[in-house]
Amino acid sequence: MVAPRLKLKWRAGNAIRLLQNGGEYFPALIAAIDAAQRSVHLETYIFNLDDTGYRVIDALRRAEGRGVKVRVVLDGFGCNDTAFDVCDLLAQSGVRYRVYRPEPRGLRQATFNLRRLRRMHRKTCVVDGTIGFVGGINILDDYEDVPNDGKGPQPRFDFAVEMRGPVVDDLVHAQRTLWLRMNWRRPDNGAGFYQRFQQMGERLLALRQKRHRDTANGMLAAMVLRDNLRFRQRIEDVYLAALARAQDDVLIANAYFFPGRRLRKALRKAAQRGVKVRLLLQGRAEYAMQYRACRYMYNDLLADGMEIHEYMPSYLHAKVAVMDGYAMVGSSNLDPFSLLLAREANVFIDDAQFAATLKGALEAEMQLGARVITVEYLRKRNVIERLLDAVSYAMMRFGVALTGKSAQY
Known about the structure:
By secondary structure, this protein is of the alpha+beta class. Helices cover 40% and strands 22% of the residues. It has helices at residues 21-34, 51-65, 83-91, 167-184, 190-210, 234-245, 261-272, 288-296, 298-303, 336-341, 352-369, 375-379, 383-402, and strands spanning 11-20, 39-44, 69-75, 96-100, 124-127, 131-135, 159-164, 219-226, 249-254, 276-282, 307-311, 319-323, 326-330, 344-350, 370-373. Strands 4-3-2-5-6-7-1-8-14-13-12-9-10-11-15 form a 15-stranded mixed β-sheet, sandwiched between helices. The two termini are 32 Å apart.
């Protein structure tokens, strides 16, 4: 299959395994940490101190106790309620940690600053520089604060991947870049420092890849990162390129779906040329404004020829897509927060078999626990619901305007 014409760093010869929900992800993650011999580097937006969180902390502390170099990066907003306690527990065992943009305390919390919206939303881990994890799963138990209709709670629906092969080197480079920027960035010369470090990192990456063994018959994959310097639109651009080439089927599962003009146009054009475009979105509102703002667009999306399915058993937290033989798995939603402000990490995989596996997992959940949205269903909504949807949409648009990017939405 011909890859989209983007300047992506495609890496051949990778072994990539799909992990569904925390039930598959955390055992794989903890097993890798327990087998670590040299290094563990973990990044997460949320680190919750539930049973799962303590299991991960215990694994990190065991690794540090064996002499493994362990580093952890937490986001200051996502971990605002837990960062102090998590860092204290890590420090007791000598684990090194950093908090990305800690939230202000006291009266400063009430002040608005656009920089506070620029978060580290990645969920990644690399063990020994050879095993990488990327996805949408925070350090948070599957069953923490999920809905319960009396039939027993169902887990959050989400995905991650376990990777071995050359693509892991690019993830190592991204983690190291952020770690050093957080340590050594000089406010008066941040751009110059970044450029010098980037050049040095690229040379080191080339040296590492010369000794990296490809996996026989492995997959073609590329790390797709978003930041606020070099890769501001990279994730969106990859989606646009893949949608432009799609011929048969597009299936996107996204927790917070509020695409800009370019992405909506690409989805519409794909549907109009006969591509089957399906959207699997939240049916349970974890955050009401985002949920309702998305629902406000439903009539237009249906009119453009797309199918909409709402996931009902629990919260949908996935950020994945299958576009013909390509698959996208990562941390990035298709909303202004992820596409305009946050640091994100996705992996884009050009492998028909992997894409079929992800597509099968999504379709199985859609068959068992999704509600099909139709024009008739939308007509039955009462006036109050429609008003709340419209107000939420307007508030989201206003929020985008504050970033100076309103023309994109």
